[in-house]
Design goal:
The structure is a homodimer. Chain A has 13 helices and 24 strands. By secondary structure, chain A is of the alpha/beta class. Chain A folds into two domains: about 140 residues, 3-Layer(bba) Sandwich (FAD/NAD(P)-binding domain); about 200 residues, FAD/NAD(P)-binding domain (3-Layer(bba) Sandwich), CATH 3.50.50. In chain A, the strands form eight sheets. Chain A has a five-stranded parallel β-sheet. A four-stranded parallel β-sheet of chain A has the order 13-12-11-17. In chain A, helix 1 links the parallel strand 1 and strand 2. In chain A, helix 1 runs parallel beside helix 10.
């Protein structure tokens, strides 16, 4: 590899982002005598794969977030700074944060991805996303609040619109979220509310392509659709969402779905900091890199994880998922260490250990170690893997308690409407008309649960 | 007792508030054939006694909040409505909520209490309170954010002011919070931050009277002060906080404490809905009631818990605490049932089972069953009692996991800065000048952890 840095002394490594990629890079660089500064705007590492479970009241937000300072405490040479990175000065080798600038000798940018609304204003305005911990909590609050609101007097049509959730995107996130939401409604809220209310609930999964979980093989994809429909999810394939006006969702096939809640899980784009990187971006704003994950014109800058545009042997871009970010973070760190001794590293190659997606209690699909799994076995594998991946003992235990509660007792205790604007149905859009239509008190009560 | 209602048929009982009092009243009225409507602006019951532990990152908010619908599900005849009560029409026997009116035959008002700033504007503007779940989470976020901000370049005086927490009120809440905060700083944040930063932290407990925990006997009160000081808390007795300008706290003894954070735990007042009750209020806005906890002019309205003004044998007002609210809620419900049969109930009398307050790991004071306890035994009793009181199995287990983690490993995993304005140090006041003073990047980093 080009080794401008071979032999040259590298003192400070700056890593932007404490997600899967950045954290692994920092871990790989610990105890090496290097001065590593990890920067993140959050003070915690977020275990994104389980965000959808927070959004569906299965686990508490604290169970999938872990204080970064607690993680790196025992990592010699690694320091943390909680700050928002506002700009990059690659020529002067500086990272600009809201709290001042930081100089680096080598930089690893692992800022991850944000939701991609594909520039559709009405969707950007009305859709809900699921990228941050707060997104998940807001979503949970909203779903629960809408069910409370649905106990008020309104027409059946109004109630149905109020409780119709349109999930966009047939990828793992959309599929797992739709399945978990369906179970929340059926198994849990079904106990809290009348048949009239729960019966009005509707979950629609809209996917532009003619299948969900594209990367999986046909039979697993069909199995997934079958499971979703079994859970009561309406699967709409070959249709795209074109607009949302707050109370109606407009599909490309001409259909209009009366709904107050559009959940956008249809795509991501590289974090906005990429605008500070002077290269032509690939699809989704991802940054093209050389075979060593470095910027072509700045070999002292590595791009890893969701932000990096890397193609596999078949020239397809690598998907944006945790295992890839982790491998890239480790690879970048090892290359930096190799520089010290002037070693030549091999080009990055993703070692695909497989993929899995869960579709409600006891069902999942998996491609792993050359095996195709589905059903309970795949689900148990999913459970085990994610529990192991959860970063520390306590979180594992807390999540296990929640899951046991959920799966054994069909109960979810975390269905709390939290936040500042309590009582005022947080998150419900102004368009949510029903609460404005009121009949005399006695009638109001007659239908309430 | 006066029994205007003896024999008369009572159909609907409305209970305002799902706190300790209201929830117990509803439980007592379940399965009695009566139509009971429980109204709360939250969808969960909050276990207030442990709020301070959420504020000090010991346990997650979900561990002390429990969905009301899950609690009442098995209670025949009890329904729930999530709504804000905006007014009362006692003459027409109606409760007015933001979502319409509700008629009642008998009403139990158990709306609890809110923080009492004693009408000091500067304190109302700058002080932080600890009454709601969100208050606790905001407080946690603020404390953790201030420690992150303290890693920036600033003078020692600035850092000291930034990390000085003035806790006002030597009652159980103030004492327990101050102790838990001191342990958070020393045992947990001490591992995350440099000695320079942790050493700058300062916790001052200000109490107007010449002692903390007034209702306890002298030796226990002295023990409490001794413990607090052992934990590094500065205890300032005989001084009141008179004003706060965002960066300085002004005491009645002329002292001025440079601090960005004033924690107001000095008093509560009856919930604002009492303004809809046409009687002269007692101290703290509490509502005077007859010996049966009813409004004198409206015997069909019961006031229970923190809102009710009731005197003990010694003509002292009963304190505002959970056990009293629970007993009053049960008493009111039983009286209502007695009406059905025209029975005569006895006047309300509080059965004092004792009180306890914890002061950091392994130390507590307790007056129970005529016994005076302190130290580890009192602390273990406190642990056991609160675990038993926590409303359901799962929460008990989750709390236990957290406590074990905290007490055995001196670790608190919940120290997360959550919320919308991440990165921007949520909750820090604009006056928090230090972050605005910046030196060149390298220097910035030199002192950071």
């Amino acid at each position: 590899m080009k080794d401008e840095h071979a032999g040259t002394t590298i003192n400070r490594i700056v890593i932007i982002g404490a997600g899967f990629g950045g954290l692994r890079a920092a871990k790989t660089l610990r105890n090496t005598g290097l001065d590593v500064l990890l920067i993140d705007r959050q003070n915690y590492h977020l275990f994104q794969p389980l965000l959808y479970q927070v959004a569906t009241a299965s686990i508490e937000q604290e169970a999938i977030a872990y204080p970064i300072r607690a993680i790196i405490r025992s990592w010699d040479g690694v320091r943390f700074r909680m700050a928002e990175v506002t700009d990059l000065d690659l020529d002067r080798r500086r990272v600009i944060t809201e709290d001042g600038a930081v100089d680096y000798d080598m930089l690893i940018v692992a800022a991850g991805a944000a939701t991609n609304f594909f520039g559709i204003p009405s969707i950007e305005q009305h859709a809900h996303e699921l990228k941050s911990l707060q997104d998940a909590v807001d979503l949970r609050n909203r779903v629960l609040s809408l069910f409370e609101q649905a106990t008020l007097v309104m027409t059946d049509a109004e109630r149905r619109a109020l409780l119709t959730f349109v999930v966009v995107g047939g990828g793992p996130t959309g599929v797992e979220f739709a399945g978990a939401l369906a179970e929340l409604v059926r198994n849990v809220l079904g106990k809290d509310h009348t048949e009239e209310i729960v019966g009005a609930a509707r979950i629609v999964l809209v996917e532009m392509l003619d299948t969900v979980l594209t990367p999986y093989e046909r039979d697993l994809r069909e199995y997934a659709v079958e499971r979703l429909e079994h859970l009561g999810v309406e699967v709409r394939l070959g249709a795209a969402v074109e607009a949302m006006d707050g109370t109606r969702v407009y599909l490309s096939d001409g259909n209009v779905i009366p709904s107050h809640t559009l959940l956008w899980m249809a795509g991501v784009q590289a974090a906005s900091i990429t605008r500070a990187i002077p290269v032509d971006k690939e699809r989704g704003g991802r940054v093209p890199v050389d075979e060593y994950l470095r910027l072509v014109d700045y070999p002292d800058v590595y791009i890893v994880g969701d932000m990096a545009y890397v193609e596999d042997e078949a020239d397809n871009p690598l998907p944006q998922m945790a295992p890839i970010a982790i491998q890239q973070g480790e690879y970048a760190a090892k290359n930096i260490l190799a520089h010290q001794t002037g070693e030549i590293a091999a080009a990055f190659a993703y070692n695909d250990k497989g993929k899995m997606a869960v579709i409600g209690r006891g069902h999942a699909v998996a491609h792993a170690l050359g095996l195709k799994l589905r059903g309970v076995i795949a689900w148990l594998a999913w459970l085990a893997l994610h529990l192991m991946m959860l970063i520390d003992f306590r979180n594992r235990l807390v999540v296990l308690v929640n899951w046991a509660y959920d799966y054994l007792l069909f109960e979810r205790k975390v269905r709390l409407i939290t936040g500042h604007n309590v009582g005022s149905l947080p998150g419900t859009t102004v368009e949510a008309a029903p609460s404005d239509e009121r009949l005399p008190a006695v009638d109001v009560m007659d239908i309430s649960t």
